[in-house]
């Protein structure tokens, strides 16, 4: 267009910015938007919507919020797209208070033509996710109630964020209640929701509930993954349920999953808490066989379990291994005592 010496107008700029949004090119969108301002080309709410969305998708959440905030000064009324992108930007920036403020503002504002702007499912999901990321579980529940009053049907994203918010708030009973609600709505819980519920139980010391959730995943789906097993192992570690930690480690390997450092660490610590030096030693050997390098904490816990079990030779063996790995300080103290 410029090569043919035809001056770009509002429509052509807006189309170009919309293309940048679809291609997730926020910097290019901002450059075009800046040119429009410099040249005095009329800017409409659709243009603002596109450039705000481009910034939001490109993780430039601060710029997205700033652009939205300047709309009143430009005497342009935000439309649903502008609000949706702005709330999503707040979610990415963990600005939960700003997200709730935008929701309240929507309810008191009319779009062009005098029609009310009604928050949709996407906007509610973004606001709930913002609360979840900031551990504002009570506000997440308030938003969920508002959704239901508006007759909006929750989706997998809604439930995932809500259950995760309950986990962050250590509200395991509410997390399980939301899983049950998912089934009532005809939505089989996905891995994210199940893992969040297991984490909620783990944080609250409800290890038996965590184990029941993993068992439920094995029988009804989705198949538990490494995150599921690690959360359950951590729950067992908290209470020293070493027998179940051993079972989980066996199930994990039987499911063709590869235990991580966290898996072994939780299993070993659970066995140590139960005074089971043999199991600690066996898991350490499994770590070596799985090419998972023990850290200082693992060596120290195994050494402590062997010390309690009066297995001095094992402590000396651990010292040699730890020296080779450059992690010998704690084991050395035990070996010398």
Radius of gyration: 27 Å
Q: How would you state the average pLDDT, rounded? A: 91
CATH-scheme architecture of the domain at 225-337: Alpha Horseshoe
Helical/strand content category: mainly alpha
The general outline is: elongated
Helical stretch count?
A: 19
CATH topology assignment of the domain at 225-337: Serine Threonine Protein Phosphatase 5, Tetratricopeptide repeat
Beta-strand percentage?
Answer: under 5%
What is the helix fraction of residues, given as a range?
over 70%
Q: Any idea of the CATH class of the domain at 225-337?
A: Mainly Alpha
Question: Could you state the CATH homologous superfamily of the domain at 225-337?
Answer: Tetratricopeptide repeat domain
| Strand runs, count | 0
Unreliable runs:
none
Characterize the main sheet.
none
- Note the run of SSEs as H and E: HHHHHHHHHHHHHHHHHHH
End-to-end distance, in Å? 82 Å
Written overview of the protein:
It contains 19 helices and no strands. The protein is an all-alpha fold and 337 residues long. It has a domain at 225-337: Alpha Horseshoe (Serine Threonine Protein Phosphatase 5, Tetratricopeptide repeat), CATH 1.25.40.10. The radius of gyration is 27 Å and the shape is elongated. The protein starts with 9 loop residues before the first helix and ends with a helix. One of its GO terms (molecular function) is mRNA binding. Keywords: Repeat. Residues 125-302 form the PROP1-like PPR domain.
